[in-house]
Structures are given as C-alpha cells and as structure tokens.
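Person: Please comment on this record:
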Amino acid sequence: MVDMGQDLNDVEAFDPGSGGKVTVGFHELEIVEVEAKVSASNFPILNIKYRVVAGPSVGGTIYGSRSLHPNALPFFKGYLDVVNCFATTRSFDEQKLVGRYLKGYAEEYTKTGGAHAGEQGTRIEKVFKSEINAEKNAQIDLSVSARPARELVTAGAGQPKNGKAAGATPPPPPDDKVDDLPF
C-alpha cells in the first residue's frame, strides 16, 4: 500500500500524455498560465506555463519567462507577434495570453537557487509562430485603455500645490494588469 499524503479527491486531473519531463527539441505549445511578477531589478517579468499539445511529450508541462525590462521590450513585442497578439498602450492584460499557441524550443539547463538547485531541467528558450494560432485564434489586442484622469485636490485659492495635491498619492495600478510599458 502506498500513502500519497492526500486524498485523490482533492487533486485536479490532467491529461496524462507523457506528463513528465518534456524532451529537448521543438514542441507545439499552449499557454495555460501567466503570472506577472517583479524581478530582482524591479522590472516586470512574466512567468509562463505551457502545455505540450503535440508530439512525443504531449501533456507535459514546461515553463518559460519573458522580461519586461526596457532593453527586453523589443523581444517581448516579437513574442506578442509570435502568439498573434499586440499591445498599443503602456498597460496590457497578460491573462489574454492564456489559450494562445506557439512552437517552442525546449533546452536543458541547470536550475539555480532554491530546493532544486543543481538539478537538470528543461525550459522554453526560443519561440516561433504556430499554425494552430492561425486556425484557432484571431489576432487580439492586449491593450488596456488609459486610466481615467485623476482628480487634483487643490491647496488653497483653487491652485494645486507644486502641481500635486498635498499628501495625495496616485491610485495603485490594477492588480491584474502589467503596467508602464512604453508601447
């Protein structure tokens, strides 16, 4: 008898496919999860979870990330083109990437930091356009419309103090949007 440590009723079932390690090479992928984080250098980064939808590793899961550092934005704009999306504003809804398809090249790497430091793994390193997107997904705009203008609280005689209201702070960006992109 094997004790799994929890009831299977509490576990979500996945298509088993290979279910395990994704092999090195080219794979048709679907984006299944996107998480916006802030990097150590204080710039946004997207952690992306992919599911292999065709080939010998079908059903496998693999991860990748996309930096939104100003120097990396041309590469990110190219990534959006690969998944048949675009953004024209400083903010975009990263969750609209879920369900998009692409071809990806999985490569081996050595994990650093954390409990798995030193272990070998695979990750998506290069991405290419997929015919699946052309068949299933029309091009979409990820842009988020401009925020409404902030009300300015005045500091006496109807004039703002140094162009800002005394003690006023701007509202935080919405939690579900990546903000401050220059396109």
